[in-house]
Specification:
Two copies of one chain form a homodimer.
Chain A (H helix, E strand, L loop, with lengths): L9 H11 L5 E5 L12 E2 L9 E2 L3 E4 L13 E8 L14 E5 L11 E4 L3 E4 L2 E4 L9 E2 L10 E3 L7 H9 L4 E5 L3 E7 L3 E2 L10 E2 L2 H11 L3 E8 L3 H14 L2 E5 L4 H14 E6 L3 E2 L5 E5 L2 E6 L3 H20 L8 E6 L3 E2 L5 E9 L2 E4 L8 H5 L2 E5 L5 E2 L4 E6 L1
Parallel strand pairs in A: 5-6, 13-16, 13-17, 14-15, 17-21, 19-24, 22-25
Antiparallel strand pairs in A: 1-12, 2-11, 3-10, 4-6, 4-7, 5-9, 8-9, 18-20, 20-21, 22-28, 23-27, 24-25, 24-26, 26-28
Helix pairs in contact in A: 1-6, 3-6, 4-5
Chain lengths: 401, 401
């Protein structure tokens, strides 16, 4: 294993993780549990929606033509034939000069083509004074207007939002076919890594990466499975990696951060499958490994938490999106004006943390290894590999946390 | 109960739900389960981070002054004194003219103040040729540079992101004090409402609102508790509302959508507590009720799903944010240019669904009751109560779904 990594562009790393992402399995869940899940198949309505012409206000069902020219001074006077009961078919139809009271959501009687709101009418015994003209279709949702029977209401790959779940209810889906949540194995290694419960001695640091990687997997619709800190020993690491690859859909190994540790991780991945990429032109995050143990994707994250996090955001996100089947991943982005010059090294993508306030992105300078700028920032900007930096005032796209 | 609602401005409705939102309880969870939860107390680091001067690259720890002017042609020649082992204190210190190999994450030996990357050095027996000058502090994270012991690393009210969880690990938090997830009771009523499993007869519609409201509560960090469809009968609804108010932290009653049903819901809320607001100057969503059963907030949502959803987005969101303790709620917003004129009625806030593509917001016209525009849109714009509409080209803020 060479001491110098052969680095590949970020775009190649993304293409690679997309290629090796295993297709998600499917399962059926009750509609109550479907929010946030990803549809595994197109969904079609089992009926016309609405199934009847429906009033959207409390008012009087009328023939619009009967209300032409109606006003406060000279109202149209209609004969009231009764009222529509909620949930039932009207008992009579409307002929010229007639109206029927209809509550919000009630069925429009046949013969009527509009509803005049109660606020624009006045009842006097069995007559109703209409004080505002109604146009054809006013205050009515027409039969079939929302969805036709067998219409595709939502497509495969859609991560279900609250309103989507409501539409699925209307379309008759008591259960939903969704992609299974991928299980992501998380393990940390490195002689310097100690558990969060321990106070580090000189030279030691707590295991932050397991928690960052696990929480990131969760944020992206996956289920983390924690394997803890594995002793920095070839036999122990091989056993842990094999176990995780056998139990999970992908594995994220974090650190060790030193070259020796990285080389051990890489050679073990090669032994159990293949190392496809070892080194990416990204800062921070260069010493990243992309490979497979059998058919299970294995990503070797840099040991330093700040670097590991950028690799999760820039690269691993694409692996997880591929594995969840999400066709419209949630990536919050805003465009902002850069508050100061940002230098960058040509030949690599530089990820710079920024604060965003009122359309202005202020770079948080400081070493890329700092954790405090990760939690003080609102997101990152990426300086493409071909640039030596960006100037004050440049409009940049901020990927928000 | 008057047939005409006394409508209040949206701002008053928001102030009201904020005021009646009960303060969240607290619980302690393991760090693995903390992602997405809201901190109930400020968190301070139990140690200095890093706890030692730490190399961020594989390289040679040096005194920066020894490398001044070093280059490919005339390298600085230093005596190599050995190597630092990961996780251990270095065995020796560096004096002028000396260097020590240090792996990424290793402790910087005393006497050194910078690290030269291996790529910029060449080892020749026990001598190392340094081919690039290092500046003081280069490639080193200094003791204490990230967080000092007892520094506040994250504040109360923060919804924990992946990187936050990593920082909590570094700060020694094996468990975290968070706000409990509020439990939101969801019930639907209305003679026209049938379960999703049933094919609606004429005049009937399936219960979409329970699912929309429950999923919305989940998206906002709450746990929905479903009470199903309650028969449109005063005794049954009173019993269901009392039960839900006794078991939950807030209750969302949806519909019935007709005036009679709304009046029944309002008078029952008044009987069990108080109706504070009945009618909001918002379209769609005017016939919304805000009240309390005892101290439990109760919101009466409009019966039509599209209207109910806008009320969730515009009003109920603020209730839930108050109840989760989230000080920085996730509201995805983008600024975009309006693609066409949008008329609006003065005196109410109009919520218009839009698609957003490349900075342009295209209004999806169509009746406000349509579900299909909810799922085809990317978000909404709000036309304030004082406006009669917005003109093409206006820069608008889109609240993304």
């Amino acid at each position: 294993m060479s001491i110098f990594l052969k680095v590949v562009p970020v775009s190649e790393a993304i293409t690679t993780v997309r290629r090796i992402a295993p297709a998600p399995a499917q399962e059926t869940v009750p509609l109550e549990s479907a929010a946030g899940r990803v549809l595994a198949a197109d969904v079609h309505s089992d009926m016309d929606i609405p199934g009847f012409n429906r009033s959207v206000v409390d008012g009087y069902a009328v023939r619009a033509a009967d209300t032409t020219g109606a006003g406060d001074a000279i109202p149209a006077i209609l004969h009231q034939k009764g009222r529509v009961e909620m949930g039932h078919q009207p008992e009579s139809e409307i002929r010229p000069g007639e109206c029927i009271y209809v509550p919000t959501g009630g069925v429009l009687p046949s013969g009527a083509d509009a509803v005049v709101m109660v606020e624009n009418a006045e009842q006097a015994k069995d007559q109703v004074l209409i004080k505002k003209p109604a146009s054809h279709g006013e205050n009515v949702l027409l039969y079939n207007e929302d969805f036709s029977k067998l219409d595709r209401v939502l497509g495969r790959g859609r991560r279900l939002l609250a309103q989507d779940v409501g539409v699925l209810a209307a379309a008759g889906c008591a259960t939903v076919r969704v992609f299974c949540k991928p299980v992501i194995g998380i393990l940390s290694t490195g002689n310097e890594i100690v558990p969060v419960t321990k106070r580090p001695d000189a030279g030691q640091v707590r295991d932050s990466n397991s928690f960052i990687a696990g929480a990131f997997a969760e944020e992206h619709g996956c289920t983390p499975h924690y394997y803890g800190i594995v002793e920095d020993d070839r036999t122990a690491l091989r056993a842990a990696l094999k176990k995780a690859a056998g139990e999970c859909d992908a594995v994220l190994i974090s650190g060790g951060s030193s070259k020796d540790d990285r080389d051990m991780a890489a050679s073990l991945i090669a032994e159990l499958g293949e190392v496809i990429i070892h080194g990416i032109a990204i800062a921070p995050g260069k010493p990243t490994i992309i490979g497979r143990a059998g058919n299970i994707p294995v990503i070797g994250l840099p040991g330093h938490p700040a670097s590991a996090f950028i690799v999760l955001v820039a690269i691993v996100r694409h692996l997880l999106d591929g594995m969840t089947g999400d066709s419209r991943p949630v990536t919050k982005r805003v465009t902002a004006r850069l508050a100061s010059n940002v230098p960058s090294q040509k030949g690599r993508e530089d990820y710079i943390r920024v604060r965003v306030e009122e359309g202005v992105a202020t770079p948080l300078f400081g070493k890329s290894g700092l954790l405090n700028t990760l939690v003080k920032s609102d997101g990152v900007i990426c300086i493409p590999a071909g640039y030596e930096g960006l100037e004050t005032g440049t409009m940049v796209e901020v990927l928000l946390w």
